[in-house]
Specification:
The chain is of the alpha/beta class. It is built from eight helices and seven strands, in the order αββββαβαααβαααβ. The chain has a single domain, classed as Rossmann fold (3-Layer(aba) Sandwich). Helices cover about 35% and strands about 20% of the residues. The two termini are about 25 Å apart.
Length: about 240
């Protein structure tokens, strides 16, 4: 059984929804001795929600130092030059990193992640994808600026770099020779927008807090309600590659 642990609060509901989707993709391959690497992990990555040792690769762990987790072994590195031998890991993860890379670096990053993946292993990569994500990121940045007087800390970077398209990324992955490539969708657009409005933009705060919306019980209820709303027009693509 996957040792997941979702202690949901208003401050972690966004990453919790992403990692819940990723953990669901590991259920059919799970073993207690699974070797996992997360590329672009920050100081905690999946270990905030998974009670299992993980090797995390990042070039700036200090940005998320307040979330540091002892289950994550930190390794300084970049997505295009992973400091590991070939076929080192059973599972390789990368969440919301591709959109922060220039377009010409995305295929080399995919190549590196597949290089360190063992035969029979699984790669899971998530990223905001295409016109839907671009529209939602533009909305989020504008709403955040109106509320806080500055750009949203990551939406504006997405817009500046240009968001990946799911199908070209999947074709790039398939060209590298895996036995299976699947693209799934995650975060139904209206649900994603509601979650960001409440917990990122903090619309209506402090009145919404007084009404009990910005509370841990409400965040937990929303997590359960939104976790499986992944059909139709979605914000995020989930690329699953079996080597």
């Amino acid at each position: 059984m996957v040792p997941e642990r979702f202690d949901i609060t208003p401050w972690n509901i966004d990453p919790a929804l992403r990692y819940a989707m990723v953990i669901d993709q590991l259920r059919d391959v799970w073993r207690d001795d699974l070797r996992i690497a997360e590329i672009g992990s920050g100081a905690a990555g999946i270990t905030e929600f998974l009670d299992h040792p993980v090797t995390g690769v990042d070039s700036a762990f200090e940005r998320t130092g307040d979330k540091a987790n002892p289950r994550l072994e930190r390794v300084e590195g970049t997505a295009t030059a992973l400091p590991f031998p070939d076929a080192s890991y059973d599972v390789v993860l990368s969440l919301e990193m591709m959109e922060h890379l220039p377009a010409d670096v995305r295929e080399p990053a995919l190549r590196e992640m597949l290089r360190v993946l063992r035969p029979g292993g699984r790669l899971v990569v998530t990223f905001p994808a295409g016109a839907t994500a671009e529209r939602l990121d533009a909305w989020l940045n504008a709403a955040y600026r109106r509320r806080h007087g500055r750009d949203h800390p990551w939406a504006v970077e997405h817009l500046e770099n240009g968001l990946p398209e799911a199908e070209p990324i999947a074709r790039q992955a398939a060209s590298l020779g895996p036995r299976r490539v699947v693209v799934r969708r995650h975060a139904w657009a209206p649900a994603w927008k509601l979650q960001q409005l409440l917990f990122s933009v903090e619309w209506g705060y402090p009145w919404t807090r007084a009404a009990g919306i910005h509370t841990t019980p409400t965040a937990r209820l929303l997590f359960r309600a939104l976790r499986h709303l992944n059909r139709g027009d979605c914000y995020r693509a989930v690329l699953i590659v079996d080597r």
